[in-house]
Recover the amino acids of this structure.
């Protein structure tokens, strides 16, 4: 659960109440079925997660409906979280992941089959929620999001074993895997509560940029592990086609590093690799560049929000974006 | 490709033309992407299959629009095939299948990850086709179908290793895994070409019963293998929770057989098992009972079709149903 400071603003109290209701809606999505498939979905949903997609959806809604969030929006706010968790269930099967949110991956508890089908279940239930909301344009846009997500996964799969990924490819993956769903979540909240097309576009741009910043921050925080763990994690990332932004920066900075990283990922021994990688991170200024990227994305997100009328809810949305930039410092 | 006899009726010629166009639409669904994910989907789609779901969709459309099938329906007719193939891609990963349509399973050619994502891709592309058709009730009903399919898969997963499955459970799995998609395919064809609600209900009942007959026939044909292959296949089926109707009939007929089949599926040696199973199939009259079931389902399907106005297309739909009953003899 996201931490909401008590008495911070009335909007924080309202959001806190929304989030309690959200947990109920999420639980309802796969309740009353004790079989492995539903259990795997429930297990992952109950293991936490920051619920940041529902939060931005609910805040976008409150930008246009300050007093009360209609039930319909509360239900729509679970969609982003359900789709996100569906992709995690499939990802852990695809990547043979063992740990998720500090617990054993669902596939280790309930099996690969239950994880694949549990992902399918969450996805279909999410789409049924969108369908029931009766706003056809939201169905079209969530299907576009899902198409972009698969495209990103497809690109990652091609990138397995490679360390010479272009920044263009990196950002296309981030666009599909992270930004697209943030975009949809704020669109759903705003659109359902009366945002006009220009405001919807502003919200979508906000969501997209926040999504980028969110992923870049995640990549940056990866570098705060202990050096040995970083070395291991880079090789795993190469194996899965999911290199982080600062590491890509470092690899592009130092000729020869890409080939060494790829060889190490194939199992060749290279004692100096972690040291050389971290040195290249330093030399390339990757950390400062990542922080700059996050700042730029945050600024763009805040600018996009200007088409939305000022309100406590808009301020809270802006705080979500600013918090990412602050954590990156 | 289904065999259509030349000059059988004008409807056969029309259907033959529709099917050529269908192959183009199916290919378009995942064209122009040479990456593993799309390739796995393309590989499976190109490996044949009877295209029976598109056929009944197109014929249902021609019951109400004899002269010409609108492009929209042609596109909708691929949905049943795409969803069916999506489930096969996931099933082969879940069940570790090695052969599909007499070729190596897609997962062996492109990997498990590409198969899971290829299934996701086909599913989402199918839903995008439904969305683009602009008939919201078809979106709601395909999502219901997908929910029933996952429910059936979920039940199968629970039944793994069990040989004492009830007929009720068996039919619930058939309902979700096969009948539901046939139901939707004929609904989509009829509804888009002007069928009224009563006619849609008739078509859905027809599709459901044809789906049941189709699965029962498949189960029956399983018994025509050589006896050793049958023994092996029954143990595999128990492992996967997918026992066939005649074998279930035989197991329920002879006390003690369920426990022996389960033990053998766990690896215990039982030389007499295949012999005793086949004897129980004979003694229980399972083959005759399955034929009777198929006949009954065919009769029910034909009766449901009565609400549709007589036409060559209706006759052709009836022929599809009758052909199942004839193959069972």
């Amino acid at each position: 659960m996201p931490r909401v400071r008590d008495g911070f603003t009335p909007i924080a109290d309202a959001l806190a109440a929304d989030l309690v209701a959200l947990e109920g809606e999420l639980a309802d999505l796969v309740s009353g079925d004790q079989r492995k498939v539903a259990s795997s979905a429930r297990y992952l949903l109950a293991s936490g997660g920051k619920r940041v997609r529902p939060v931005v959806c609910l805040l976008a809604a409150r930008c246009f409906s300050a007093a009360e969030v209609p039930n319909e929006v509360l239900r729509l706010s679970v969609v982003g979280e359900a789709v996100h968790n569906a992709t995690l269930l499939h990802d852990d099967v695809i990547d043979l992941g063992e740990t998720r949110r500090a617990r054993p991956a669902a596939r280790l508890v309930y099996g690969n089959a239950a994880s694949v089908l549990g992902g399918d279940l969450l996805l279909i239930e999410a789409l049924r929620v969108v369908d029931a909301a009766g706003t056809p344009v939201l169905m079209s846009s969530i299907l576009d999001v899902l198409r972009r997500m698969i495209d990103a996964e497809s690109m990652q799969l091609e990138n397995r074993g490679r360390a010479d990924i272009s920044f263009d490819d990196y950002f296309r993956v981030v666009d599909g895997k992270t930004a697209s769903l943030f975009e949809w979540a704020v669109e759903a909240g705003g659109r359902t509560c009366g945002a006009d097309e220009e405001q919807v576009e502003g919200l979508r741009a906000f969501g997209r940029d926040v999504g980028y910043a969110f992923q870049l921050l995640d990549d940056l925080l990866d570098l705060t592990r202990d050096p040995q763990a970083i070395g291991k994690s880079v090789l795993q990332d190469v194996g899965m086609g999911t290199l982080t932004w600062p590491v890509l920066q470092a690899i592009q900075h130092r000729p020869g590093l890409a080939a060494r990283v790829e060889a190490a990922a194939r199992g060749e021994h290279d004692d100096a690799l972690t040291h050389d990688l971290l040195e290249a991170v330093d030399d390339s200024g990757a950390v400062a560049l990542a922080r700059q990227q996050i700042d730029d994305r945050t600024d763009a997100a805040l600018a996009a929000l200007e088409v939305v009328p000022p309100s406590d809810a808009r301020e809270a949305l802006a705080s979500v974006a600013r918090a990412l930039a602050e954590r990156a410092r």
